[in-house]
Design a protein that fits this description.
21% strand, 5-stranded parallel sheet, 2 domains, oxidoreductase, Ald_DH_CS_GLU, binds 2-aminohexanedioic acid, aldehyde dehydrogenase (NAD(+)), 513 residues, NAD, EC 1.2.1.3, single chain, globular, alpha/beta
Amino acid sequence: MADFGIKEALSTLGLEDINNGSSTGTKWFSNGDIIESYSPVDGKLIGKVKASTKDDYEAVMKTATEAFKTWRTKPAPLRGEIVRQFGEKLREKKEALGKLVSYEMGKSYQEGLGEVQEMIDICDFAVGLSRQLHGLTMHSERPGHRMYEQYHPLGVVGIISAFNFPVAVWAWNTALAWICGDVCIWKPSEKTPLCGVACQNIISEVLKENNLPEGISCLVNGDYKVGEMMTKDTRVPLISATGSTRMGKIVAKEVAGRLGKSLLELGGNNAIIVTPDADIKMTVIGAVFGAVGTAGQRCTSTRRLIIHESMYDKVKNAVADAYKQLRIGNPLDENNHVGPLIDKDAVKNYENALEKVVAEGGKIVVEGGVLSGEGYESGCYVKPAIAEAGNYYEIVQHETFAPVLYLLKYSGDVENAIALQNGVAQGLSSAIMTNNLREAERFLSVQGSDCGIANVNIGTSGAEIGGAFGGEKETGGGRESGSDAWKVYMRRQTNTINYTTDLPLAQGIKFDL
Ligand code: UN1
């Protein structure tokens, strides 16, 4: 099989056969078990990473806590300058890192590049923000008093990220946290540990070149047990966790139990509503990319198409026809649209979902199946499938993290479609395809979509970093990346200064001595 430049990419990113998984910036160590990273692309071992032990974690935490004391005193625009340099390095390494993302995670090379672009974009955004960490000033009710608020950094931010966006989600968090004056400890998914090591190698160059102390950018590796060290740790005021709702509920409970803050970005069950006024061509592109992009493993992936009965057959046939054009295979080969699922467990979940939807009475429109034979040796390649289903089906109520698209029919008004769209436990992304202003505005109104993201004439996935990203209900309520998401990484302090010689009390209370 062609190498697709993987060897070169691994060397550009400073990856070795066996890598230490704990780092405080430029220093590396690790005493835990070996995590092997196999590519879902060809089933080959890419490399190994040594997990972090409790002692490794303690060493990292101690260094991070120390680093915070100096990092927080550096003016925010100077912290922004470090993030600017990081963005520059990412530009240099974009192809190599995009390739590694594609090879270790399985998404298409184009999507791998897109993910690195999201990192670059958030760096640019954070650089600008580093001069805009604004607080408000208020008018005091007392004469000769001044009142204002300011934002201070929180301390050590713990980042737990998922396999599906193995590099970008870390960058969303860490770029903002750094300009805010926080230091970060990142635990990447144990399914994509090399992406974590590669990112740390990139930032370590910037840290070295600027003579920065150890502890600003830290990495730990391992399974949920390492995650637990972070969630239970009172030295971590904020945990930002991305992953399943099941994981999020455990993290939320643990962190809330110690009154820490958590920023949760969990499962989605995203729908596109297709109204009688939809543009079919746009609908097909939005739905197909949404459903099969990243092999259906984005939290924003389109899981449900809610189609008006008058358009139902037309849309169903058009989407099914488009599926015939999909080429499934090595994601590094740019002729292919769909790569593998992350591993064989994911394949099993996909198969279970298809079995379940049929058992519940659903009808298969585009047949699924696991691919085998030449090019599919890893056993992780599956055919994107489409099934007609009911919104009330148990399987439709859950997030199927695979390329399975459920078709639902609605009749009457757009309100009926919105009710179906909102009738699930998750609330991340949503979309409506319509050229009808009334329908679009109703979808966006207070009685409309209950999701964190609501799009008109765009699919459910592929959000830009400039907006706040996240969702409601079982998606966890967190907001990351753009808009004012930076505020989560800081603590707000209200300051009132009296510049008179009297001490008047608020609310006009008299207290004379
Ligand atoms: C995720 O799947 O966790 O909106 C993040 C999108 C991407 C991010 C997805 N920008 O699809």
